[in-house]
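Quick question, first post here. What does this chain look like in 3D?
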Amino acid sequence: MAHYTLGRIDPECAKLAAAAALESQKPKHCLHGYQYGWILHGFNQLPVDDAWKIAAQEHWDAWAARNANGGLSKYGPHDWAVNSMLRMVARSGNEDWARTMLSQFHETLSNEQSGVASLVMGGMPKLAAEHFKTEWRGFFVNAQNEILWSQEIQANLHAFKQACADPGLAMLGELYLSHLKDPAKPDQEAIPGFKNKETRLKEIAAHFKEITFTDPELRKECVELICMDYDAAAIIQDVAEEVGIATDLEQIGSYENTLEHGQQCKPLQFALGMKAARGENQPAIAAFDKALAVSFNSTYYHRNLLKEVSSGPVHVSQWQWAQEFKADKPSNTKELLLFLEHVITKTPANLRDNHVTDCVSLKWLIHLIHQDAAAFDAWQKSLKPTDLKELASSVGDNWQIWSFLQGYALPANKERLKPEERLLLITSVLKNSWTQEKYPGSGPGIPNLIIDLIQKAKLFKPDEFVAVAVPISEALPRAGRTAVEAGDYLVAQGKSKEAVAMYALAVSHAQKEKPTDYGLAGGFAIKQIETLENTQQRPEALKALKALDPKRLGGGNKKIYETALKRLSSPAAETSK
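> Answer (accepted):
Ran it through. Tokens below.
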């Protein structure tokens, strides 16, 4: 229970769980390290009183003994358990234990910010600063998902920064901590003056130019972490571009570490993306060509570097278009095609990754918003058969057109395109062969087109959907499946009367596309009949039911037919007319 409630537990439950865990730890019996991490997480929420300190000593002793155990039964604790234990020893105030943890689990606690966060949360900000000062050059923004921004971090942050002494180091430490994920909204309310991750990073960026950095590498790393949030990066845009353009791709290419590539390329991504958004494609093309020319022993790392270098023009440009729209400024969109086509054309087959499919999807979007879908269709037809097949598969697996379209049409929920304008673009996408491959009419694991459009991409609000349901279903009927998905969605929204029409349309589409499959159209008709009955339209439901041939419905639907016929033909049904 303590494990699966993820630490939000009653204090008595936390005590019992911690005591139960000791029963396994002491004799070195079965106890999963991840589970123990959550149990200690709950234990760490209890007040530090005498009883807690006695229990903490027992946990430490059992932990130390188990980790000292050799041979085949050597204990390899999960990183989450290591950090939970580090927080426990910090709360206990025992610095010797804490230093033992930092030494024994050096690799776990010295390559990202979780260890520093655990010490700060546990109330040892000075040791956290000392550890950070020693190890920061090996850090990456890659904290454990279980470690979140918390009231304890917020309360001890000032002491941590003071203990760093150097203002630049203090800023970098604050950046690493601020990159921790935000807690769930209910937990945010318990943190006085809570500020979300984006706000934290923007406030740090606002003070960046006040800092005198004595170490150029420290300054560069601060810029890298700020550039992980575009809104924060925009505050120091000139610095971000200065650091980004100076990026040494040859040096980055020598690191066989995807985290190294990603973190060090962040200023370059922002710089290239901002230039591309202004219509300046040549810097991005030159950077891509330079990355392409870097020598690698592994195509895996080469692909990753190309992906990182291409990311800026693709994603920062889209972010910048949204900023320009919010400021009532025009955007350069068509100009970006030059870069996108360069990446698509120049990337060798063995180095293709999601960066190519992202470029293809953005190229598609740009043609759509310029009402030139025919140009994209013509480009598809010009591809070699092998390239066409590979791109169709990769675009389908990494389907981005809906999210790209949403980001352009509704940036920050501000309407750039009206529902009818969005519909025009969406129906154009639905008529494309790649979309038809992505959303077939039958087969296993078929994605739900309507859910993808409305609930996932949020391209229409629920109250906008009724007006677009028929055109969407007509654009890609899928033998009635799209209309049925629309009907199901409308029923879930309490719009059953509107759903009836969609189920009728589904029957029509099924009969047209698969005239010999009576069971398919009949199944859709059953849905329509059930919805008619649920909306108190029993005569209409009975009439539609009697129009079906039960012998051709198939087993499941035939039973539904028979049950419905008895129910709708009963005197009670007649009375309720």
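The longest helix spans residues 299-326.
The chain has a mean pLDDT of 93.
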